[in-house]
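Data card: per-record layout.
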Amino acid sequence: LSPVCLGSLRRAASINAEYMGNKSKAEENAGWSTRTQKMLQHLTDKEGSDFVYQEMVKGKARITAVGFFYELLVLKTHVMIDLKQEEAYGKIDFSKTNNITKTDEG
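The structure for this 106-residue chain is written out next.
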């Protein structure tokens, strides 16, 4: 799996978060792909709130790992998770935000 750098994605996610700020969760989720909805459900059901991307995709097929990463970017854009990478091509940590639990409520 090729290393990934998150630097330029933070700004785009921040801009989108401001835009999405006034929509209800049902409105936000309405246009989501089936894969994004499955990823959201998987993370909602998963114990804990802090994860490491590389650990979650270890042993998975390359295409699965790439798809998983893409869905993390989608969820970050919608402020469902926080992504953190200390250095370029380093470990990618992510955690659930308070918004991820609100999807079940409304």
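Known properties of this structure: Helices lie at 9-20, 25-29, 34-45, 53-57, 62-77, 98-102. The first strand starts at residue 50 and ends at 52.

See the next section for split statistics.
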